[in-house]
Amino acid sequence: MAAIRQGQVVEHVLVFSLYFFTQYYDYLYIDDFFKQPGSVRATFGGRWKFMTYQNYMAHTVFFSSCVLADFIEGVLGKKAAGLRKVQDYVLVSILFPMSMIVMVVFWGIYAVDRELIFPASLDHVIPPWINHVWHTTIVPVLLLEMYMVHHKYPSRRAGLTGAITLGLVYLTWILIVAKVGGFWVYPFMAVMTGFQFVLFCCFTAAIGCVFYLMGELCNNVFWGPRETPRKQKKRA
C-alpha cells in the first residue's frame, strides 16, 4: 500500500512538473509571437477562447491540487477529503470528456485538413512536443491517474449533467466570440453552413456523453463497478 501511495505522489509531481514547464516555455518562447497584432491570441478572448488551452489549464490546476492534497495528507498528516471529492467530480465529469473531445476532434480534423485546425505555418513557432502535450498526452495522463488513484464516480445523472453543462457554456462562449470579435474561434467553423454548425454541435455533444461513459467504463475496469445506492441498501 505504501508503494502504491508513493507511486501516486511521484505521478502527480511528474505530471504537474510537465505542465508547469510547458506553461513556462509557452510564455517564454511562444507567447511573444502570438502577441503580435493580428495573431490569434491578440484577438478577442485571447488564448482563453480555445478549448485546448482551457483543458490544458484545467489539467494544470487539477494536478497541482493533487500535489497539494498529497502534501496535506502525507506531510501534515491531515485529511483532504473535501479536496479529493472535488477532484473526483472534476476528473470524471469535466477533464476526461473534455480531453477526449480535444484529442479526437483536433487529430481528426488535422488528418482531413490540418490548415483548418493547426496551419503548417505554426510548425516553426510551436514545437511538436508541446503540440502533443496539448493534444495527445492529455488522455493517457488521465488514464494513468484513474489507474493509480481510485476516483469515485458520482451518479450518472450528476456526472453527465456536469459534462453537458460544460459543453453548453463553451458553445455560448464560442458564439460570444463570433458576435463580439467578428470571427470564429476555429477556422473550420467559418466554412460551415448554419445547419452544418448545428449538426457539428449535436455530434460533439453526443460524443462527449459517449466519452463520459467510456471514462466510467475504464474506471470500472481498473477498480470494479460502482455500486448504486439501491444495491448498497439491499446489502445492508
UniProtKB/TrEMBL annotation:
Give the subcellular location.
Answer: Endomembrane system
Q: Please give the chief subcellular localization of this protein.
A: membrane
Keyword annotations of the record:
Membrane, Transmembrane, Transmembrane helix
Entry membrane topology: Multi-pass membrane protein
| Species | Branchiostoma belcheri (Amphioxus)
Transmembrane regions listed in the UniProt entry:
56-77, 89-109, 129-148, 160-178, 184-213
Q: Which domain of life is it from?
A: Eukaryota
Give the encoding gene's name.
Answer: LOC109473063
**Family named by the database record:** Belongs to the AIG1 family.
Which catalytic reaction applies to this protein?
A: 12-(9Z-hexadecenoyloxy)-octadecanoate + H2O = 12-hydroxyoctadecanoate + (9Z)-hexadecenoate + H(+); 13-octadecanoyloxy-octadecanoate + H2O = 13-hydroxy-octadecanoate + octadecanoate + H(+); 12-octadecanoyloxy-octadecanoate + H2O = 12-hydroxyoctadecanoate + octadecanoate + H(+); 9-(9Z-octadecenoyloxy)-octadecanoate + H2O = 9-hydroxy-octadecanoate + (9Z)-octadecenoate + H(+)
Q: Which Pfam families match?
A: Far-17a_AIG1 (PF04750)
Gene Ontology CC, one term: membrane
Name of the protein: Androgen-induced gene 1 protein-like isoform X2
Instruction: Please give the InterPro entries that the UniProt record associates with this protein.
Output: ADTRP_AIG1 (IPR006838)
